[in-house]
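Section 5: illustrative case.
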């Protein structure tokens, strides 16, 4: 497929997407872009319960190995949950259920949702469970919450996600594990000595975790490099987009727009109050970096990839009726959503391309109706490849069974407060950040509809339409 894509897409017209132009246009804007207020219909449906986002928070997202290094995942999740309680003034016993996402699981807290909830002071009568769906784990937590409310099982659900890359599980080799388990079961000294005598130096080699596909054994960065090559995405385009992300994130941070970030007092250390991965550079400095995955000719580098991040997020989702009865002014309605799945080798990171048209069709909207776009930025090459796929009639007809292309989000509406490349990407926490950011941007810019889209390991993806709550 890769060679087909490369040949066909390079020869097909992609005139509405020029990375240098959209990067320069976004970065040269000196005032905050305001979406025009449009008179649009609401997506409320007769007889269908309205589900609202009351509020959302997150801990600062930090580079792994920095200030959070001595903590555990449930510490971050607990901080996010406590921050949500403080932000909303929500009585702890008013929560019917808690759903939390995580990807790389700490074995001591296998149900991190429950441990974090208890640590945050929620009632031990409040059920909690943990979900995992790679980079869309907290998206899954939120839609699970919406499903519980839509089904009439709950009125108030807290959803969130946590990822802690500073301390990931490292296992003994399989042969060593089998020997140790057998030792535990051995009943005689002779049996134990025999097992101990079978241990060889090679047995002590650890199994290190890797951000790789089990089905293909390929790292995600390697996949991103191949995808960028298949769509003819240049190193220059990737570096320009990454620089755009960092500069917009820095501007949003300095302007106080990242209001979902809470202060977190790290035990034994200072209060952390902002993300520490936002580092605007220069094109010249970025150009000096060597390829990180496919050497020496790859285009994906440390500068145009998201970095290993520690962080947690949490949102309060309620039925509109319950929220209003408790005196809350919701931020947004959670409307239609979809999950998609593709080939995990050649189309691993194309979730947004497949999910965006499906969620728009479910909602009865077009791309032009969307005022705010928030796409997960795993790699600059991944974002650029998705935009080129969305702008290709050939790709739509050949791979998606569509008559024409999806279309490309206007860059003045796209990730204008930065994205995962700059803010950080704690795998399971990013989904809640995306949704909360859409709600805040809709309020700030006066728009009505927002769209979240993300790719995930396994060739999966997600998209959701969010509608602003009437001001």
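Designed sequence:
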């Amino acid at each position: 497929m890769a060679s087909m894509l490369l040949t066909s897409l390079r020869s097909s017209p992609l005139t509405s997407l020029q990375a240098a132009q959209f990067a320069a246009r976004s970065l040269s804007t000196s005032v905050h872009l305001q979406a025009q207020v449009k008179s649009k219909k609401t997506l409320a449906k007769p007889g269908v319960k309205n589900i609202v986002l009351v509020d959302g928070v997150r801990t600062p997202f930090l580079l792994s190995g920095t200030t959070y290094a001595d903590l555990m995942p449930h510490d971050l999740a607990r901080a996010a949950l406590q921050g949500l309680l403080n932000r909303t003034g929500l009585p702890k016993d008013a929560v019917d259920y808690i759903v939390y996402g995580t990807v790389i699981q700490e074995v001591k807290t296998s149900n991190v949702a429950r441990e974090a909830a208890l640590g945050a002071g929620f009632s031990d009568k409040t059920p909690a469970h943990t979900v995992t769906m790679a980079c869309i784990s907290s998206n899954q937590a939120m839609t699970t919450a919406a499903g519980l409310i839509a089904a009439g099982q709950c009125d108030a659900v807290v959803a969130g996600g946590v990822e802690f890359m500073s301390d990931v599980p490292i296992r003994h080799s399989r042969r060593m594990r089998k020997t140790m388990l057998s030792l535990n079961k051995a009943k005689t000294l002779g049996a134990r000595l025999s097992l101990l005598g079978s241990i060889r130096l090679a047995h002590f080699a650890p199994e290190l975790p890797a951000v790789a596909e089990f089905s293909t054994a390929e790292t995600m960065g390697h996949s991103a490099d191949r995808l960028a090559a298949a769509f003819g995405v240049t190193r220059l385009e990737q570096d320009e987009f990454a620089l755009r992300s960092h500069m917009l994130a820095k501007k949003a941070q300095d302007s106080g727009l990242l209001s979902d970030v809470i202060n977190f007092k790290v035990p034994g250390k200072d209060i952390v109050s902002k993300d520490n991965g936002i580092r605007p550079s220069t094109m010249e400095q970025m150009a000096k970096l060597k390829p990180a995955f496919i050497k020496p000719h790859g285009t994906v580098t440390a500068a145009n990839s998201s970095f290993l991040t520690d962080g947690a997020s949490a949102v309060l989702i309620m039925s509109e009726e319950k929220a209003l009865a408790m005196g809350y002014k919701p931020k947004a309605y959670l409307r239609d959503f979809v999950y998609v799945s593709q080939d995990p080798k050649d189309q691993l990171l194309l979730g947004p391309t497949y999910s965006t048209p499906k969620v728009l069709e479910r909602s009865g909207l077009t791309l032009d109706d969307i005022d705010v776009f928030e796409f997960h930025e795993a790699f600059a090459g991944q974002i650029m490849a998705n935009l080129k796929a969305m702008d290709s009639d050939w790709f739509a007809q050949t791979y998606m069974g569509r008559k024409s292309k999806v279309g490309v989000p206007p860059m003045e509406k796209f990730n204008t407060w930065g994205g995962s490349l700059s803010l950080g990407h704690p795998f399971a926490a990013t989904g809640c950040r995306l949704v909360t950011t859409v709600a805040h941007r809709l309020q700030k810019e006066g728009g009505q509809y927002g769209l979240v889209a993300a790719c995930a390991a396994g060739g999966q993806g997600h998209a959701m339409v969010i509608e602003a709550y009437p001001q």
